[in-house]
Amino acid sequence: MKTREAIGHFIRSPRFWLISLGVSALAVLFEFQVFLPIYLSETYDLAPAYAGIASSTFSLGCLVAVFSGGFIYDKLTKKSLIYALGLSLTLAVASLLLLRVLGDQGSTGALELTLTVLLIFLFGFSISPAYYIPMSVFSISFGGRHCGLLVGLIDAIAYFGAMSFDFIGGAVANKEGGWQDFILILIVTSVLATIIMTTFLYLDYRHSRQGNA
What keywords is this UniProt entry annotated with (predicted)? Predict the structure, then answer.
């Protein structure tokens, strides 16, 4: 299959568009880590250095989830993956909702900061398996010898979404009380990511059953 034929094959597949949109939504959620030091600095009056250290819990959550998720992923069936990653993304929505509740209270004490840092860890832990693992596995199985091209197309769509959010999110956060609206955007995006990725995983599961029939 030539490159042009491969691209045509990809874009005719509903699974391609679902994984692309799902990863794009997750890429937007990952952009939160770019804003985290500023968010913590402005919300809790942390010095930039301490805000940077506190925000590193997001990356720690990603590290723990991806490392452990790689072992777990191989042992799960495609059907159980729907529930596992669906639950993981639901936890991401819950962590953002709790972050917004903490922000609404307006308290900036040590307890609130500790809870915020823990929620940031949970958020990174919750979104990273859905971001990294399904796309890689799908690209190899669906893309075949053109898996590199498929990864490039999906990543390009994802980075476009992330780039667009950086402009929009920055403008929203810059307003008075804008961080609450900023987190609300992330909540909506997280809900969309959960719906899209769950739908993708279901279609992928159904396709595998048809292939084995």
Answer: Membrane, Transmembrane, Transmembrane helix
